[in-house]
Amino acid sequence: MWGLLHFEPEIPTIFIIFLKWQGIITNFYHIVICILPRYSSLLNTNQPKKMKTKIFASLTCFLLFVLNLSAQPRQELVEVIVSPDHADWTYSLGEQAEFSISVYRNNVLLDGIEIEYIMEPDPGYRTLKIWDEGTRILKNNSTKIKSKKFTEPGFLRCTATVEVDGKEYSSYTTVGFAPDKIQPTTTLPKDFESFWEKGKEELNQVPMNAVLTLMPERCTDKVDVYHVQLDNIKGKIYGILTKPKKAGKYPAILHVPGAGIRPYYGEIDEAAEGFISFTIGIHGIPVNLDQSVYDDLSRGALNGYQTFNLDDRDNAYYRRVYLGCVRAVDFIESVDGFNGEDIAVTGGSQGGALSIVTAGLDDRIDYLAAFYPALSDMTGFLHGRAGGWPQIFVEEFTNKPEKIEVSKYYDVVNFARFVKVPGWYSWGYNDNVCPPASTYSAYNVLTAPKELHLFQKTQHWTYPEQQELKKEWLFTKLKK
Description:
Blueprint: H1 13-21, H2 27-40, H3 49-70, E1 78-84, E2 90-91, E3 98-105, E4 108-109, E5 114-121, E6 132-137, E7 143-146, E8 154-164, E9 167-177, H4 192-204, E10 211-214, E11 223-232, E12 235-244, E13 250-255, H5 268-272, E14 276-280, H6 291-299, H7 317-334, E15 338-348, H8 350-361, E16 367-371, H9 401-407, H10 412-416, E17 423-427, H11 436-443, E18 450-454, H12 464-478
Parallel strand pairs: 2-9, 13-14, 13-15, 15-16, 16-17, 17-18
Antiparallel strand pairs: 1-3, 3-4, 3-7, 5-6, 5-8, 8-9, 10-11, 11-12, 12-14
Pfam families: AXE1 (PF05448)
Keywords: Membrane, Transmembrane, Transmembrane helix
Protein name: Cephalosporin-C deacetylase-like acetyl esterase
């Protein structure tokens, strides 16, 4: 069985459809939305504590099993392989990339068939411009295609498509040209720091009023689990706290979420290893409700929340979210058993963005670890290259001067400029949701200690090895 892949669910639905199209099977969504809530409702009955614990454990095991089956890349009868001539997929300016294209059926190379190819720079999940396209016949089991010379830092994607027995098969590879020299297109507003200092001052005037509710059905012999409610500016923030039962002083990890609206279950295994773990939602609603509540919000009131009030700097949706992350740090400092010193923040996609934002806003953060941070260099599309998720500046509705200006106050690039703590980062060149041009735009302005772990082939998901590397880095830093 393949190792478990991890990917961040990105709502709206177009991203789920895209992931399916790219070969990520997402039956997981159907399990969570349609099946799990029906059985998890048993946890809200008057079942004995021991029975509730068994039910929760069974549901967890079932979910992990489904994830292992459903989050794997879909295997097709015919595989199209696009291989660059540099093993690290990275080139210097002025170089040409050469792609070798081959096609396998039943692990046997095919020959004499026609392939279509297209080369496009920095595409995201849209086609911005086409550099080259055409057809080739596979001879001696492959064909080679050379790109133009790249004179500016960026990325180039080569997509190959073949038809076999009336069905199309496709694959792509994205290579980088001097990605470490990519600079952001967004700019730093002169009052950026004062704007956010004012926001934190406003937050400080709001009492935290923490309400912790023990969740006995989720507790183990080593870990206590709580549902947490905190007061935030203009609403609440909710999360799941997991902490060791054993008395002691522990470092803490704040988990910030990928995009979407969903329940959370907490990091029980992490707490069992000697950490206080706090996993938050960002939408001001409890994170332990029936799945149908989140489904309704996703389709209704919170559909497209990413662009809510984007023309109003003081009321943009992410203002409350970003300050809510600071409130989460406030709470961690108040938790009995926190060692008073060591806090890390971590997440992927929107969570990767929030990790950088939190570290940029709050000097109580000591370490951060981020996968493919979203909301980075969102104005990229206005300059002929892919911008970061949610990839909004491509249509007249969002391409308004006031929206573009407000985005600068929420772009991860501008928070990265103020990060002062060590960071661990990881992404792939093939990511269409958070394209590498956008993530490098944030990474390249970081002046704090940083390390980048590239897994070039990955799209908007991670290998188990990436997750293990992140975990090892964080645990080592926090238990120094």
